[in-house]
């Protein structure tokens, strides 16, 4: 925990490598929406601890060791949340299964994985319906945060903005349990939006602009959001956003947003991380790679994995060692107090 | 035309300061959609040359002189295109009026303004219907480019991606007349998307990802698009886009995109322009400010207008004087050959 050897905490990892049985079960569930006779039971899904171990050791854990990261905040595969599929019951069963798997991974690898919950959102359904799953994950499974999808329709954006009272039941529970939310969409079913190349990044940008337009943090001064993928377009256009807030007579973004929103470092090249760390105050930056995720290849320009974001954080001239400690560990502990408590209970 | 004194050509300006009579006429037209008796005639709109002159001299031309830019490629106000309103006839009448006004401005200020056309797009209507207006603007009004809205629905994204054959009639005419298109959406009527803070930037990101997914430029090797607002999120996430193209087995982006797409400099702070000019080859960067546009204030951090982008282009350490000439003039002449011809005919 010293500043020279920070814990490297990746606040954004998904279980993208779950055993194939999970996907097969989901496909059966989707078939069961139209043909109830085909609907599988939860108990039909059988994944052993050995299978879970193998899927992690050969993938995320191997890369964490290679890259030198210690802990991943681990949530169900984002693109598979697919909240647009089926109704609340379909989402509810699916979320429970996915969250249980991440919980089991965290039990099998207590030093390396800490669970973050997906919610059983469904388009047009009151978000309050998500609270039982959310509470179970926090209280029984030790989840330290949640992923909140601002567009459960999957690219049609039919829900109200994040500043709308529609979402307040979730926010009230987040405040009660002192857990942050990563604002993270799922698969796009709109042909205009490529899931990881357009929908994800657009959602990040959209969320930030919604938060600029509104005054959500007046109602919830302790609410905390992580905007993934380096905040979408926002840091690159920070002057635009500062200027738009100014036209709207909002306070400076340092006041209006930065007490409550945080950016991860899922930006897959050095100039992007250099900009992020130049423009956004270091207190608002959390280390993350989204490994193993959207971009799995090796960058021919560097010979390293695109998503090995630790290399960029190490190499940027914008951070001192003390600031790197903040990005890797200090800020993450502050934004996720339940993670901090868990680490302290482990003597870390 | 020497490199030491380039013409400063702003490739992205809209007529945001048109006389109030224009907006009044449009409001009447919108009322006329529901109440045909209220529908105004085109001839009801009367704007004198003096009114046009005044609206330009007090605004764009004043700021161009203050900031030291020479020429603006000038198109109708983007947020007022509002292609989602009414049917093709409504859009067609409106586009004709707006394009005529920009043409008149270009006639009144032939040294400073060169027109770029909006199209009479309408959701669900074949883009081929836009061709008569497009041809009139190019052949009779001397327009050197067009603005193409990839989402005429205004934030619901109901049209197919830009790589779809749906759009090919427009592309065929663009190639025939050798005019580029700026990919520019209009007002968002989706409450999730703030028009200039989310919808514009998302559309830029979306367009680039569509072009990565497809192979449009195999069919149209000479087609040229300008992606405004610095390319949305793309340059900030250039590693992500290079990596996604790689996963899709596409050629390097230098091959796959950069012979055909160009980024403007509408990025309203120094770190953004520094990133753009570091990541994107200089041949693909065109000077622009979108003045007078979305962000009209003065940045308290610099004491200058946010949208005075020439300051950032001047100040960046990433460009030599020869490269600045490219950004200000050389590239714009190359991407807009009809502008180049017009300037040459003026001895410039």
From TrEMBL, chains A, B:
Would I find Lyase among this entry's keywords?
yes
Q: Which UniProt keywords apply?
A: Lyase
Q: SUPFAM superfamilies from the entry?
A: Metallo-dependent hydrolases
Boundaries of each Amidohydrolase-related domain copy?
9-337
One Pfam match? Amidohydro_2
Q: Which PANTHER family match?
A: 2-AMINO-3-CARBOXYLMUCONATE-6-SEMIALDEHYDE DECARBOXYLASE, ISO-OROTATE DECARBOXYLASE (EUROFUNG)
UniProt-recorded name of the protein: 4-oxalomesaconate hydratase
| Organism name | Hydrogenophaga electricum
């Amino acid at each position: 925990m010293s500043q020279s050897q920070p814990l490297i905490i990746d606040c954004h990892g998904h279980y993208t490598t779950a055993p194939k049985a999970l996907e097969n079960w989901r496909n059966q569930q989707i078939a069961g929406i139209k043909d109830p006779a085909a609907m599988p039971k939860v108990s039909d899904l059988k994944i052993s601890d050995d299978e879970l171990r193998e899927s992690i050791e050969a993938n995320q854990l191997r890369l964490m060791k290679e890259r030198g990261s210690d802990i991943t905040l681990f949530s169900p595969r984002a693109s598979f949340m697919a909240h647009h599929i089926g109704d609340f019951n379909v989402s509810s069963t699916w979320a429970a299964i996915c969250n249980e798997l991440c919980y089991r991974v965290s039990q099998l690898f207590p030093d390396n994985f800490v669970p973050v919950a997906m919610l059983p959102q469904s388009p047009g359904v009151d978000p309050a319906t998500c609270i039982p799953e959310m509470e179970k994950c926090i209280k029984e499974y030790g989840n330290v945060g949640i992923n909140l999808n601002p567009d459960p329709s999957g690219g049609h954006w039919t829900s109200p903005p994040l500043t709308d009272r529609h979402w307040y039941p979730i926010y009230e529970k987040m405040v009660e349990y002192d857990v942050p939310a990563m604002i993270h969409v799922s698969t796009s079913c709109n042909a205009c939006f490529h899931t990881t190349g357009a929908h994800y990044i657009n959602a990040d940008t959209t969320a930030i602009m919604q938060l600029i337009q509104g005054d959500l943090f007046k109602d919830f001064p302790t609410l905390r959001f992580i905007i993934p993928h380096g905040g979408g377009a926002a840091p690159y256009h920070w002057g635009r956003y500062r200027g738009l807030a100014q036209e709207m007579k909002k306070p400076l973004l340092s006041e209006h947003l930065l007490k409550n929103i945080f950016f991860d470092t899922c930006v897959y090249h050095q100039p992007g991380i250099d900009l992020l760390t130049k423009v956004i105050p270091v207190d608002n930056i959390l280390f993350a790679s989204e490994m193993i995720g959207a971009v799995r290849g090796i960058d021919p320009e560097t010979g390293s994995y695109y998503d090995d974001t630790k290399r960029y954080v190490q190499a940027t001239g914008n951070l001192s060692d003390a600031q790197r400690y903040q990005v890797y560990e200090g800020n993450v502990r502050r934004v996720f107090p339940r993670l901090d408590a868990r680490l302290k209970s482990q003597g870390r």
